[in-house]
Every structure is written in C-alpha cells, then in structure tokens.
C-alpha cells in the first residue's frame, strides 16, 4: 500500500506489455493524492482527536446510554473505522505496488503504528458492549430501528464474549499487534525480494510460478527445481516466521480460552465449526472421485507413466498457448457479466476505465491477485499479475466479482458491508462460473470444449481440494507447534503428509517439493483463511445449479444477497434459493458438479 508518481517496469514487464496491450494501473488519488497530501494530514489529526474524544465521552458509560445515545456512539465508531480504513488502504495499496521500496514500507509501517496508538483507547468499546445484559441490549434495539440495523454487528461482537480478557490485557494485545505485523512484513519482503534464474533469465516469484503452466515440460521442471532451490536456501527464515506466528497465536488463544486454533477464524467467518467440518469431510471423502480420477486422466493425456509436481498445472498437449491480450480479456469477462444481467456489466465497467485495476507484472510488486474494498465511500481496487494466460482471464473474472460484490455491499456502511470470508468468495467464484459457461457455449469444437472443461476442473480442484489440503496442513502445523518448536524438516513432513493424500497415486514428488509450503501467504497473514475458498466454491456450485435449473427471479435474489454484505448470516442468505450449508448433502451437491465434468471428460475418451 504505497505511492509512486510514475509507472515502474523492467524490460521484461515492458516486453510483456507489448503483447498484452495497454495494461491499466491504479489511480490511488481517490484515496489520497500522495503521502504528503494535506487531506491525509487532516485525517490523521482528526483521527487522533476523535479517538481521544470518543474514549472520553463513552468509556465506562456504555451501559447508561439510551437507544439514541448508543446509536450516536456506534455511528461515531463507524466514522473512525472509515477514516482509519482509508489511510491504511492508501498506505497498503502503495506498498503492494512496490514492496521492495523502503520508503513505501516505512510509510505503511508509520501509518500502522500511528493508527494503533490512536485507536488503543477504543478497545473498551467492544469490551463494554459485551458486558451489556442481553435483555438490556434487546430492549434498546426494539426502541430504535436505526440502531436495530446494527444487530448483526452486535451479534458477531458478542460471539467473542466467552473469550474476552480484562480491559488492560485487551489493550496490551491491541498494542502488541504491530509486532505480529512486522513478522508478516518480513515474510512479504523476503518473498518479494527472492530472485530465481531459469534458463539464464532472472525472475521474481510470480514470473517463476507462471512457468509451471508452460507447455514446455523441461521449462516447468527447471522452474520447479529453481523454486525448490531458492525456498531451500531461505527455509530457516520461513520456518522462523511460521514458528513465531503460530506460537503467538497459541499464546493468545490459550489466554482467551479458545478450544481450538481454528475457533477464532470460525467466529470471524460467522460460521459454525460443524459446518466447516462437514465441508472438510465431504471434500476429503471426494478426493478419489475428483482429484485422483482427474489426475489419472491428465497423466494419460500427457503420455506419462507418473506425473511430477511440475505437471500438475501443465497445459494439455492440444491446448492453445496463444496469449490473451488485455482487450480480449476485458471483453470476455464483461460479455459474460452483462449476459447474466446488464446491471452486472454496468457495475464492472468503471474498474476498467477509472484506474481501479493494476494489472501488469512489475518488479517488486506483490504476487497474486486481490480486490481490496478500501472504504465504503470510495471504491474497491483490484490487483492482478496479468500475463495473458486463460487462467489469468479467470482470475480477472474472479477479482472483478469481488469488486462488484464490494460495490453493492457498500451501501450497508462501514460496519455492515464486510462479508465473512465464507461468503466473500460467492460473487468472485460465481463471476468465474459465468465467464467459464460463456466460453463453453461458444466453444468451436469438441477439443476446445475438452480444454475448457479440463481447465475448469483443474481450477475447481485447486480451489476445493488443494485449499482443504492446505487447511489440513495448517491444522497439523498449529497442533504440532503447541507441542514445541518446529524445525524446517518438521514442517516439510507435515506438508508432504497432506499432498499425496489429496493429489493421489498419479504423482511422484521431486526432492525439494517438501518446502513449497513456504510461499503461501495465507498461512502467515490469515491462518485458516483457506477453507473459505472451498466453502465459496461449493456454495457457488450449489447456487449455480439453482440458476441453471431456471429458478424464477434468481437474478434479483442474487443481487439482494450481494447487497446484504455482512448484514445476514449464511442461513438467511441462502434460504431464498432453497439452500442450507448446514445440511451435509449441500456440499455433495457442489462436489457433484465437479464430478459430472470429469464424467464428461472421461466420456470424451471413448
């Protein structure tokens, strides 16, 4: 999240841009024009003063407020969140554009520290809110409809009530948060600073990982071995980050009395542990009929006795390797969105025309892709590392789905717009599905259809099977860390224990693959985040089957679901579609869609 007045490209990025067309860059001026913007100084001053005033006005008094008084209090708290969110969005986005820039890193760190200091006096708010009696709060909500709108926020805050510590300890933990952030930054900067040499060409991690989808098998192998070499050289750093982060989490969880390492994530996702367990069990049980079966097909297509890890995301031998330029990608996704509902196309259009997307691969830019919602009175920003692969088009469809969802939910306001991770993937995966189905409809030959189906199955396996395997790895990692320090070899062994189970007997594993846990950012930034991808994919597959069956009024219900943001529980959101995620059969419905696609691929083999 940082600031640069000019585009940054190296020769390779510039050469790629020639093939790909005019790749958009962020215009962050909708947040602030620069780190020295007078509006930023004004907002920092306001934030410091308002946090102090808020604490002076309300600390120790929350229980005495009437309904109107509590509403004013909540609205002031929401405004504080909005201003702090705007500042951190600006600092963070600038940083991700160029993580290797020391000034940007310092600016983000300075902003984080200031905001932590300013907001520490506000820790009392949720603590005192949780001390209100249920009957008292219910009576206040009954008296004031505007206050009652915040009931879902209160419910989620009060879910933490059993795990709340003393006011003093909560303030201490709030202050200590910047230390955990420093370990995350160490991870980010280490990853962004790694260089890999493949066939004499020096690449960053994003460029090297991209080679794993090259048609040339020797190039894929060279990239895999180079990734293993570089991860191996840095494995002590990555192991230290994971040991420290998981130990810090264990200490906080123990003090809070949380029953499992996953409890905090389930609470923040507003999802019941048994629902997540039902998802996990359904996916693990489906490994043989999904990933094992598909990779056996792929092994035959590739003409191999055994697949190596560098074959997992290999293109099929008959696959078209031509590059999809940016204009084609935009048209493909926009056509699919508009065909579902013209409103979807209208919501997506400004992302392309107003500097809301940063698409090019650049040196020092953070790897991966995301859509950051910033704050509800601005708009989201989408980050891509676009290299013109068909999968990059799907990534655009995915992140744009997030962006549309975030735009629609913004009317809920700062405290109610944010969707739990389990539902946050809904619009993104649905956007991918719309794009995929549109491409399938216009497939010109059985071979093209086969390539599209295989690509979609692979994406679903990566989203469902791989992410649940990641989740199992994390569960094992955090359980093992509770018993003591983990060596790199310990972590490597945990990683390998989930890989063979999930990928199946078609694979062999090169020496060095055991270190590939090292680069996954979710493990460091958001422990147990990964199951949300599988949750979202399963949910969307079930949702899409309702849409494909021609359910009346689906589009309107779908827009209502996205507009709800975080104001409703998953049961309420899915009920209009006749779906229920707490029903174990629900997950089988989603997984059967993947299985049916593999059935079709097998049938094509004759």
From TrEMBL:
Belongs to the peptidase M3 family. SUPFAM superfamilies: Metalloproteases ('zincins'), catalytic domain (SSF55486). Residues 212-591 form the Peptidase M3A/M3B catalytic domain. The lineage of its organism: Bacteria, Pseudomonadati, Pseudomonadota, Alphaproteobacteria, Rhodobacterales. InterPro entries: OligopepF_N_dom (IPR013647), OligoPept_F_C (IPR042088), Pept_M3A_M3B (IPR045090), Pept_M3A_M3B_dom (IPR001567), Pept_M3B_clade3 (IPR011977). This is M3 family oligoendopeptidase. Residues 128-196 form the Oligopeptidase F N-terminal domain. Pfam families: Peptidase_M3, Peptidase_M3_N. Keywords: Hydrolase, Metal-binding, Metalloprotease, Protease, Zinc. The keyword Protease applies. Binds 1 zinc ion. It comes from Ruegeria spongiae. Its cofactor is Zn(2+).
